[in-house]
Design a protein that fits this description.
Serine Threonine Protein Phosphatase 5, Tetratricopeptide repeat; elongated; mainly alpha; 413 residues; 4 domains
Length: 413
């Protein structure tokens, strides 16, 4: 089989120009190219001398029968590999004299415009691009680049890529995909504490509270003084309905970080549930002391005051929460409770409307709006609201009883 002289000439552009003797030796013993590094695309910019020699080959040599065929081949190689020279009037003159046509000149100009050599991206370049997108909150672009790094550049053993993509999925609310990537990141690099943190949060937001606790325990094992880990552990126990364990976690978080307003706030919620209203008020006061714009603490403080019968004071707290955050649904819910208590159903309904608009999954707001409609003898609407609350919390017997009661009333009317 004849040696493809054109291919050799193009390949020689990566090495010093060879003598005829060296060229003959290369024909006998081809030098295999070095394998690419992991995640890197090999590029071999073509030298001017190699293109000139390829253009000047006589017909019938190198497997390309004529200049037109050789030109097509050279153009394809230029587009693929780029060139190692600047196209200027001198080099263009040499190329034209050797038989280069407009198509080849245009291809060289395109890949070498402005005398800047074409540089192809490596896997590390794509990874850095993904990291930059992630830092800017450009999650779709980050996911695209991380995926490219894995699929095209074979960086499938890089834990940081899976961590970054998992983080992007988490921030987009795609917790299932986040769990998959963060799990892979942990399998490749178990020392990444933040990977446990975000997998724990993804589990928490997916309702997998036991698995979330396991992840936060892993954080604590690595960083025993991590207040945030204890706080998240407390949230998970709270969501499981275990206020005793939750309070232990919140207390440890406060011990590690004395001004941890959110931990005081949620410990106060647990104290309220356990019947310690005064203890709850103290914790909400501490939360507000350390973070005066924490709307949640103002609402929860109002909630305790409401249960103690201090309705007017409670209303002040609910309004304060609303002032701090006009999109905070519980504040409107609390104001609705106040007007329901004062037997002003229309004002109550108006506030419940805002609450469920801001938070469609707010079962208690749907239920209490249903009660307000029931008091107005609008049983059909009441039944609809009770049904919505029941769909959100199917184990709640009070929701079920009121829905059945409203249905009966509606049928009689």
């Amino acid at each position: 089989m004849k040696t493809n002289i054109l291919l050799i000439l193009l390949t020689l552009s990566f090495f010093p120009l060879a003598t005829e003797t060296a060229l003959a030796q290369r024909k006998k013993k081809p030098i295999p190219p070095k394998p690419p590094a992991t995640g890197q695309t090999v590029t071999r910019p073509i030298k001017l001398e190699a293109i000139l020699k390829a253009l000047r080959l006589k017909d019938g040599v190198g497997g390309k029968k004529n200049l037109a065929e050789r030109t097509v081949y050279i153009v394809s190689e230029v587009k693929k590999n780029g060139v190692a020279f600047t196209l200027n009037s001198a080099s263009e003159g040499e190329l034209r004299a050797a038989g280069a046509n407009d198509e080849l000149i245009a291809a060289i100009r395109k890949v070498n415009e402005g005398s800047v050599p074409v540089v192809k991206k490596t896997g590390d370049d794509v990874k850095k691009s993904a990291d930059a997108h992630l830092a800017k909150g450009e999650y779709d672009a980050a996911i695209k680049d991380y995926t490219k790094a894995v699929d095209e550049y074979k960086l499938d053993q890089d834990a940081n890529i899976y961590y970054g993509r998992g983080l992007a999925y988490y921030h987009k609310g795609n917790y299932a995909s986040a769990l998959g990537d963060l799990g892979r990141a942990i399998a490749l690099k178990s020392s990444n504490v933040n990977a446990y943190k975000y997998r724990g949060l993804a589990n928490y937001k997916s309702g997998n509270y036991g698995m979330a606790i396991t992840d936060f325990d892993k954080m604590i094992a690595s960083e025993p003084n991590n207040a945030e880990a204890y706080y998240y552990r407390g949230l998970s126990f709270s969501s499981k309905g275990d206020c005793e364990e939750a309070m232990k976690a919140y207390t440890r978080a406060i011990r590690e970080k004395g001004n941890f307003a959110e931990a005081y706030n949620y410990r106060g919620v647990c104290l309220h549930k356990l019947g310690d209203r005064d203890g709850a008020i103290k914790d909400f006061d501490e939360a507000i002391k350390h973070k005066s714009d924490l709307a949640d603490a103002w609402f929860n403080r109002g909630n305790v005051l409401f249960d103690k019968g201090n309705h007017t004071d409670a209303l002040d707290q609910f309004n304060r929460a609303k002032e701090l955050n006009s999109k905070y649904a519980p504040a409107y819910y609390g104001i609705g409770l106040y007007y329901s208590k004062k037997e002003k159903p229309d004002l109550a309904i108006a506030n419940y409307d805002t609450a469920v608009k801001l938070w469609p999954g707010f079962a208690e707001a749907w239920f209490n709006r249903g009660k307000a409609y029931f008091s107005k003898e609008d049983y059909n609407q009441a039944a609809s609201d009770f049904r919505r609350a029941l769909d959100l919390d199917q184990t709640n017997k009070e929701y079920l009883e009121n829905w059945e009661k409203a249905q009966k009333k509606a049928r009689k009317n």
